Amino acid sequence: MARTLRRMADEIVERFSGTEDLILVGIQRRGVQLAERIAGYITEREGAIVALGALDITLYRDDLQTIGPRPVVGKTDLPLSLDHRTVVIVDDVLYTGRTVRAAMDELADFGRPARIALAVLVDRGGRELPIHADIVGKRIQAPSELRVDVLIREVDGEDGVVTVPREGEG
Amino acid sequence: MDSILLRGGRVVDPSQNLDAIGDVLVEGDAIAHAGSPLGEVRRDGGLMVIDCAGRIVAPGFIDVHCHLREPGREDVETIATGAMAAAAGGFTAVCAMPNTDPVTDNQAAVGFIVRQAQRAGSARVYPIGAVSLGQRGDSLAEFGEMVGAGAVGVSDDGKPVASAQLMRSALEYARTFNIPVADHCEEPTLAKGGAMNEGVVSARLGLKGIPSEAEEIMAIRDILLARRTGGHVHLCHMSTRGSVELIRWGKDRGIRVTAEVCPHHLSLTEDAVEGYDTNAKMNPPLRTADDVEALREAVRDGTIDLVATDHAPHHYDEKERAFSDAPNGIVGLETALAVVVTHLVVPGIIAWPLLVDRMSTTPARVFGLQGGTLRRGTVADITIFDPAVAWTVDPDTFLSKGRNSPYRGKALTGRATCTIVGGRVVYGDGRREMGDGR
Amino acid sequence: MNSPVLGKDLLGLETLSAEQIRLILDTAGPLKEISERTIKKVPALRGMTIVNLFFEASTRTRISFEFAEKRLSADTVNVGAAGSSVSKGETLVDTARNLEAMRIDMVVIRHGASGAAKFLADRIESKVVNAGDGTHEHPTQGLLDLLTLRDRLGDLAGRRVCICGDVLHSRVARSNLWGLKKLGAEVAVCGPRSLLPNAIDEMGVKVFDRIEAAIEWAEALNILRLQLERMQGGYIPSLREYNRVFGVTRERLDRAPRDIIIMHPGPMNRGVEIDSDVADGPHSVILDQVTNGVAIRMAVLYLLAGGRPEGG
User: pTM score, two decimals?
Assistant: First the structure.
């Protein structure tokens, strides 16, 4: 996983020509840790500190009525103004695109970035919205009966990508 | 002259110390025989034979405390529907409390109830006149005129007689007519705004409580005034252990105090209010398990003389309110017998003769009414009931217009099957058969 | 569709489990941040209709609920007692039926009769939030008090909290009492015995007859508002004497062995149950309570709003 994240860090720097005005915004939960790690690699490479933020999109979801509330709402923490910046949304898995849509809605409530980009560790296909990732760590084609989970050591104790059968509901 | 033969029932008549399988013969409106089995019975006129095997045949039950709502709230109950509900519950006679609209506080109002009851032709209805004009607690109503028109007692029930002086006068004045003064014991300032028993449940539910002392203070006041005046005070719907102790104290001293208890106070506790069930709202309120235990014991030992229903029908949407805004009272005529059987006879607290005594013989004696006995030559007011039948209460089947019962859905034991008033079957179970006795 | 975590309604804290209470508090924490944003609004309850049905006048609670609803993007209608059909003798049950017929999602009800919220909840399919019923419960106030205490003290297990004043007539007191006990706090009450439930000794709380003793014992005081009607009711002789005997004053607090957190559900009678220099003092968290109120109500509305389809 480290190699993939390092490559993603490289791509981000190259694509957006440096670290100035860059802010990495991880989506709760695992996107936040992934953003932190990518920022670490960028710092190693560029010697510059990259701004970080966290986004909890629970309250922006469009499926509250069907899947029920996520009991504990994580924290949205955007330390500085987003205006005129390049915001890179970082998440673990890109699937339907609904989470990203919610994240963009939420970002819009915080300001007007110059540009929003999307970096995901795994793109598993199966999009339901016209959304694609700018930077992808790994692509897999997983059928909808399967759930693709990213494990990270900060949360799960180890790094990895696992595919498990979906239980009852999404 | 029509006759009725009640064949093969268990005849229970505490007035004659009678408790045996046997027959009862009714001729016209009077009892011709009660007790030992009769042989073949032949009559020239019609003879109705009712098979009473497995049933108890008892002198008709008498409820000295009910609210029939007529005049004034005929949408809620009428004398006719109330009398039919009474008959269905095994009551051959009931006493109607005077808190009608207008208040039954004069001979014309008393006469109206008597006439309406005659027209209904079901259970007998005896009016109770008001103690005070308009039940306002200021000046005495005309006891003599009301008794002349058919009143059997006086009461301001629904309200206490707040003035001790007026209560004293009422007890003194009632002696001329030898009628009881029935009092709703409630010290008004302590009870003000109360919606249920004061205790831990009221504290939890945030409902204003009525302390037991509100009843007990008035009970002892009335007992002391009865001692002073020599009058007969009848204490309505006693609900606390303290009241029982005070009545016992009065009776030990020969004071003319009698007392009643309602089936709900013998069977339910304040816990029934949980969830703000307005069908558990009545005044006096449901008390604690300890009070229930004391009241049951008092029925057994005679400290409490009799069981009365305090039947209080309300329109269903009057009870569809927040608890504190809902009116007090429940219907009781059609569940009273079963509640007493289930909660006193089945657990072995009292035996059948005592049940009949507390629901028939003693009520007749306390209010000076005919009935309460199966003695030869007395009026043929008879209740036949199945002591063992288990049934589930469904208020929607009540003959009363009221549906406000806390026993909805409860399983009870014992039910009247046939009620005879003045030699006439006014309520029957379909088991009766016409024939000549052969 | 009932909330998988709270059920259909929020009627009181007595019927909630400690886990449910913790869940509400944990949800409220992050929601506080929304009120700090420039755009203080998230779309969580978009398209949901909420009626604020206030049979009793209440400025604070109604405003707090309204902010919570609006910050979650719900559509809200306020119905007050004055000028509505409620004041024209319409019964609670008719009001309930009419609301039901309008297909609303949630009702926030404040009513003067204990049990009114449950009455409504039993009769309509819409979710019901009790915003204070008579002298029974005021669960969102209880929850916001718990959140405020938890912000200061951390885990409330073993913490000592005293509820001061007119416990007898206080729905806030009851909700606090149940909530605190469920979270493991030690609870005491202090006030004139004429303003405590007669059965208070059976409710599992410590009772202090003197405020000085309560202050010596407690880590936090929740000071209830003394309704001025209590004098006419004959419960206490005068406000002046109340302040002298039971008032939380700077002098009394100065003698305490520790700093004591001061809470008050408002509105305050300054100089009666609480002195101004206490209310405005360094240990007062009264304004934090107001801030937390919005977050707690957002959390409750959010948790109640979602639901799993049956069997899904």
Answer: 0.90
